[in-house]
Amino acid sequence: MDAKLDEIYQESLRRNPTQPEFQQAVLEVIESVEPLLVGNKEYADAAILARMIEPERQIMFRVAWQDDHNHVHVNRGYRVQFSSVLGPYKGGLRFHPSVTLSVIKFLGFEQIFKNALTNQGIGGGKGGSDFDPHGKSDNEVMRFCQAFMNELSRHIGNDVDVPAGDIGVGAREIGYLFGQYKRLANRNEAGVLTGKGINWGGSLGRTEATGYGLVKFVDEMLAARGDTLEGKNLLVSGSGNVAIYTIERAQAEGAKVVSISDSSGSVYDPDGIDVELLKQIKEVERGRVSSYASRRKHAEFKVGEKVWGIPDATIALPCATQNEVNSSDVKAMLNNGVTLLAEGANMPSTPNAINLMLENGIAYGPAKAANAGGVATSALEMQQNSALQQWTREKVLNRLDDVMVDIHQTCVDTAAEFGAEGNLMVGANIAGFKKVADAMIEQGVI
């Protein structure tokens, strides 16, 4: 690493000594954009990298709420507003026990570049809580969301910061959050949250967007190699929103997805995942993937195991959580014939896993490009709210496909321009970074 860049990275380590996920994301970006930064006096004089690493605002707050037995619980809430140079802060809320400031900061940092790649005029931010909605009643989730919004409401707005959903935050949670915001603000500010219900400001196609966008990105990766999804076997991890709609679109295009997973283990279904059954279990019953396996004749549930050792698949799509794919997993995939991996989750691959993929010729689609369809469609929802319109599902999904095609081409072209032909990670990081950096220079030192 260039000495000046290493100095900036070491300062980030000093300031954030207990934030491994954040530092992992920072290091990946620094190493990728080094060809752009070294020798660029304008970026150096404006301290672009140092300013970009430091969030504009970090908010942390107590969330006290009461369960159905009148017991009081205390969780911690976060909102990190990283960069507003391209538009209002935009990024999801994650409710999960694993949430820490480090996790939220890595997600927010990634969001800066992901949002820049969409060309939708949105900045980067992220938030959430260590609250676990799993196993809670609807009333308990409602009370938590209302308590969370009591604090968050003072920091958001449709021209300031527009949260959406992430892990643990679906339509139910967005509804409760929006209702409380509306009560506190005393106005119907539809654009303050995205992922809303269709009857009150939501966008058709938003539920499917991240998964559908991921598959479109994979289509483009394959097309660049003269190939298609038709007849391919796929490994998908996770079983939430992203996984469900990744499976749905991939199988509609003639592929067969043979795996799903959650924190309890994984399922191998050689007949192909029954996506309607999966929706019933995860979206209606809020159950586990073991329940799926018990209802499918040939499906096998493996306690505590990942999906990456399953044979006879050539494409892997991690759609669960950060750092779920390590170098051992990549070795298993290589042994089983996987030739392409694209990320539906945020930063699901460790640095060693990424290096191993690139060294062994696995085509790699990084999260900030491959899973940008969700936030891109959130921005389309904001456009509809501003115009007091609701577009057809077909129009939304066509716009989504256009965005994903453009992101892929931008990554390809930028990688080639900087001597890293075929490396979509370098292309995504440099293209997103440059767009944000140029805007920062134009707007002065703020």
How would you describe this structure to a colleague?
The chain has 446 residues and is of the alpha/beta class. It contains 17 helices and 13 strands. The strands form three sheets. It has a five-stranded mixed β-sheet. A five-stranded parallel β-sheet has the order 7-6-11-12-13, with helices on both faces. The chain has a three-stranded antiparallel β-sheet with strand order 8-9-10. Helix 9 packs antiparallel against helix 10 (275-284). The longest helix has 25 residues, at 393-417. It starts with a helix and ends with a helix. The mean pLDDT is 96.
Kindly report how far apart the N and C termini lie. 28 Å
Low-pLDDT stretches are none
Count of helical segments? 17
The chain-level mean pLDDT equals 96
Instruction: Please identify the structural class as seen in this structure.
Output: alpha/beta
Strand order of the largest sheet: 1-2-4-3-5
Order of helices and strands: HHHHEEEHEHEHHEHEEEHHEEHEHEHHHH
- How many beta-strand elements? 13
**Helix coverage percent:** 40-55%
Taking all Cα atoms into account, the compactness measure Rg is 21 Å
Strand composition percent: 15-25%
Q: Report the biggest beta sheet as strand number plus sense, adding barrel if it closes.
A: 5 strands, mixed
The dominant shape is globular
